[in-house]
Specification:
CATH architecture of the largest domain: Alpha-Beta Complex
Radius of gyration: 20 Å
Oligomer: single chain
Strand content: 15-25%
CATH superfamily of the largest domain: Spore Coat Polysaccharide Biosynthesis Protein SpsA, Chain A
CATH class of the largest domain: Alpha Beta
Shape: globular
CATH topology of the largest domain: Spore Coat Polysaccharide Biosynthesis Protein SpsA, Chain A
Number of domains: 2
Helix content: 25-40%
Structural class: alpha/beta
Amino acid sequence: MNTNHGSLSPINVSFITINYNSAHHTIALIQSIIDFTSSNISYEIIVIDNASNDEDFTYLQNTLNLFSQVILVRNRINNGFAGGNMLGINHASGEYYFFVNNDCKLLNDTAFTMKKYMDNHNDVAVATGKITDEKGHFSSSYKQFPSVTKQWLGNSVHRWLSPNSFPSNKTLLNIPTAVEVISGSCMFFRASDFHGIGGFDTVFFLYCEEEDICKRVWNSGKQIYFIPDAEIFHAGGGSSAQNIALEKEFYISYNLLINKHFKLCSRLLIKIALWFKQFRRIFTKKNGLAIFLFIISGSPIHQSLRYSQIIK
């Protein structure tokens, strides 16, 4: 397939998205990319199918044959978010990588807006746009990295104790602003910076990949920015239904994140706070007891969905 849009060369932006049994979302995303991305940039669209069922993949393949800008790669095993996106990198040649969930839609010339900003700010390694929900309300574009004070005392006290900390996800920003962690649903990376920190850590199967990679961006001396003029819709839940297995998967990833980025004392304090919080949920949440027992057992990684995948 032709991967270049228009006559510009080389490719400015590689859109990378993952399909898993949700071809209708993927097709809608691609249509929005084509509709809203201007001729000011050249681009390619890389779709990684993470071992969807045959019916979904066939529908996706037949439809995407109509789009010359698309490279479709079928993975024989579901490698999750990090693994799927890293596979996409093998087929990408853009100056920027736009990792976008397949249940998103661009609402304006999102890629050009973020590229223009980052072209003029070499200290910024990755950016995100203004993410909205189905009602047009501002959603979770950015958040803060876990900390001991947040776990024990809450976000408000944490911000009071750290007046120079990054804005919380409840703060609506109207100008480009440095933020600590951005949503994995919309990450616009300078390719060279992505390469420089080693990309996504594939030890994370689902969840916490964005916290991990954003932490490594800041550790590298580069910045992360929210660009409100770049707008994107995110439906949420396009590739998965909520169940206890996914809830366990989150705590597996969270445990990996804490172990990776905190020293022993801080790790223990964060985990103890989590145990107390989850204990209270035993009486209020449907799967509260099962999740509490799972967490105090150490959120064992051998129960990850990664190890239930079937090679096609």
